[in-house]
């Protein structure tokens, strides 16, 4: 059966465990999910300075993990995704790309809800790099850092619902993306109250990783994702 | 369990049956696939004149089919996809979009193999509309119409392999897409001989339709995919 | 003299007749306009489900009409335009493309007024496919379905004027497009009250069809618009 | 009846007269064409240094000409087009934009034939600014300066035909544009030998100028094309 | 030492002198700046009609000036920039391109403050031609013509600050560009009050002109910027 | 005087020293360059797996370095550039962005020479993200890994010259970029033999870093480049 390695790029083990549960729940019976996170680095990822550390740790984890049938990089910014594809022959999926893919399958214009305004340019860059800028209805920030989010904070849920309603009614979004794993547990509640699909990259990412495996599709080793050239590394394993 | 309606927009029942089998093979045990095709229209789709007929027939089939858990439109040009999404609340996937999605998950630059040069502009338009033009390595035609293709024609297989090798070695493609259902049965052979993943939209389309269903994601009814306005229709059911 | 076939893709004969009159009025003396519509299909086109039926009927009409000097597809969404070009050697023009072309010749930034919000993504896709997204000032919906529009509804005229004024003064539009044939008869009134050119695709489409004919330009038969490959059709003429 | 002012931005009177004849030939009987050129500046336009002089002279001519029903700027680079639109209330058309418009109406992919390789980037910029880069099949230079071209040079005709055949058969062009007025008189010969429509901006430009006038469409004075602010000019009329 | 020719395309000598001083101030000790302006043409540039005259005069000045180590075209619209590059072998920089370059080096999203709404489309076109549209936060006009601006007008400073604050807080701009030389002397005041870098093209343009010279980089003479073909000119030197 | 911190993201001290010398050579007398590299990581950067390690190390170096007047990240892929901008208030420049900027100032179409074909997609992505894809003439690989390059390898020089000549004569490049610091010492030789400017990001990057400093322009702290949120880091300093 299908064995998925879910890599949480931040160092918060509760987050790792929760996302592992989400992935397992959408996979067919008998599948296995190994959920891991690095031993060093930021406990949440809210800046590029956090992201570069997390990307390096994520790549190192892929390198060190015994072979799985697929890898899921479980941070919305998809840190280290290209590096992971070089290092693995199995398919690798990022939850950011999974969420964008889901949104384009169930709607025409998606809205994104993020934590802080400072993240908007990086989100726009990722959306533009995927060629999806024409399908973006808008990005709204909650003005609340990652650490303060979650189902335990009713105010956060209200803020997410309000942002979603604004994106749907004023910007034309017919699908929503919550650009932060910390918001995942309120996705269904947001969906019900806003009335549009809410696309969770962890769940759908696990689903498309499984679909790739079912179809026998593995990461191409013929081009940019070929195994890295052997290069001398100083002070660390290469 | 998951019940998929696979709609072949052309009127060739052998093709319908073959694609139904491909879809069933990649789904978890217990899933069901209903494969259908219209009772009127072209037996293969090689022009826009064919495609407009097939799109109308496809939409009519979606409208008439009892509720399924997902719909797969099984022609590479995805005829009638937006109309089908208006008419269905369940998720709808096209095999063209599925193949492009697969290619971007396992490689950086995809090459497309089609039948006739006349199809290239429409393929480029579809790729551009998806924002994927920067990831296109190239499109090569076989100069062989649909009706003459298939595993029973060794020459066709050779032509597909030759086009794939040219796309990989000269254009930098690290993934291939066969832009025609008629080529699907040689996909694995092409993959082995060219050495890059060959992305089949029927198989991966069934997989992502299943993944959407697993995640509880349905077509948004809040925007462009809302059910059509009631309009008087002349000479036919609306 | 020039003989234009105007094809109204919907089944409303009053609309057909009115658009035929508009086309005739802008052509030089002695030209002829044959205005037709399908015998089956929707009486107005407000969804993709309507549009796929209309596209098939439009292509069938082009196929069945005796040779004219040019064809004008008279629905703003240009349904079946590429198919019609395959089927005709004479030039074929769509009123949507004609309106966009006019707007780019007399202004720098155009605004579009449509009926329902659900139409906005399809309009944006058509504008993007033409490379004109940078010239779009905005799209405003009237929130009024096609069937309720026209000069006989003073409220509709007021709504169109209000949308036009908003597009001009707040979004920077210096030209307007009414994305629906049903609004055509109020175009001059809107132009006077808003103070910017209002581009009607029926009139200008007839004009450029005539200009193509005057220049001896016919639809290219060397590429994507070559006559369709002969394909067996089931249950209908191919 | 319609009175067109054709402005040749270069100072070659033979060219002016020839283009005036082409324009008159495609207009309905009774129309008038006034063909003029500046009294100073380059006799042909092959560099940006030539073009900036020609643009200033063209704008000055528009400013000085008594009111016409439309203006046609008859140099493929459309020098001074935006300035002319500020200065005129009547519609203004450039032969470059006219040729691109024609090519997109009769084909899917156009090829451009120019004189010198140095012109290619400026042509690509103009095509990109119009949003038409995805429809460009390719640009081929003749490696022959403007002054040496024309029907009197059989070698030039052969070179144009050869470039056209290469664009059609190797690059997928199904329509051709001759990016130089000096090539206009061989357009029909090229069309016959290459087998694809050859789009001449002088003829079609006159046609769409007439179509704009027929529809009552004039240059918008509400935005970027408003009459220039009154500014003190030194050493020349403002 | 480095000798810079600063060319003010308008005919206002006070403006010329002021910009010469700004350029000299940022260059290393010992550098020289020759600041000139044309003897004819508009005293400020607020329309395309002004710009085409200024472009021709700018090119003529470059042609006539004895060789310098670099040229700086000191009008935000960069009139005649490509022509100047054809005419000079030394590097040529425009203050518009310099300001955009600076903004992309110190921020992620820039806002532009201009004088009149009519200028917005031309600014957007220049930004799009540079590929920077995704980085544009917005453009706000002061609704004040050039002639009325400057440090001597407290109201203008307040208007610039207000526009800057709006761009920063509502549109997400983290860098500002003042699209008019007349605003340059209030740049530091705006920077302090808005709290984001204000990028002045005159200062940074002088800096990158010097940097190009330091690196031995000169305008390429191998392509589009080769010296113009010799063409007969009528009534003026070619 | 100006103090530049040059950060070589790889761990090759010879490379660090050589690039420090290049930077110092183009700066005005009296400037200082501190050239450093990480103590761990790859000795050259040829894959994304190398790049993610280098990006994290580069950011850590910026964080640890005492304040300088500007930072130059001296690897063509600009690893860690956005993170560095968050961590520094002084301006930060990458040599990749510097080389692209130089090329667009001295030519219209640039060609890029890289080491291995696998790098082409990442280069194209960087160029596309900067909006410069329309100005790319082409990318040619040497098929030689970084470690084998340099002036000491006559064959490498010949391969670079051959690639440059091909880009200039067949693809229309009028400026060249050597996408690898290891090629920098042959830049002048390549320039002379190919006849087009060769843009070195180390030299020009130092120059524009100096120009930013001269103009008083510092990294914006108002948006995406604000100092990172304080986040708990595990097993390492945050």
Question: Could you characterize the architecture of this molecule?
Answer:
The structure is a homohexamer of 238-residue chains. The first copy, chain A, has 238 residues and is of the alpha/beta class. Chain A has two domains: 3-95 and 202-214, Rossmann fold (3-Layer(aba) Sandwich); 97-201, Rossmann fold, CATH 3.40.50.12500. In chain A, 42% of the residues lie in helices and 16% in strands. The first copy, chain A, is built from eight helices and ten strands. In chain A, strands 2-1-4-5 form a four-stranded parallel β-sheet, sandwiched between helices. Chain A has a four-stranded parallel β-sheet with strand order 7-6-8-9, with helices on both faces. In chain A, strand 4, helix 3 and strand 5 form a beta-alpha-beta unit. In chain A, helix 2 (48-64) packs parallel to helix 3 (81-87) and helix 4 crosses helix 8 (201-214). The first copy, chain A, is globular, with a radius of gyration of 17 Å. Chains A and F meet through strand 3, helix 2, helix 3, helix 5 and strand 10 of A and strand 3, helix 2, helix 3, helix 5 and strand 10 of F. Strand 10 of chain D pairs antiparallel with strand 3 of chain E, so a sheet runs across the interface.
Briefly, what is this?
Six copies of one chain form a homohexamer. With 238 residues, chain A is of the alpha/beta class.
Percent helix range of chain A: 40-55%
CATH architecture assignment of the largest domain in chain A = 3-Layer(aba) Sandwich
How would you sum up the major sheet of chain A?
A: 4 strands, parallel
Estimate the global geometry of chain A from the Cα principal axes.
globular
Overall radius of gyration of chain A? 17 Å
Low-confidence stretches of chain A: none
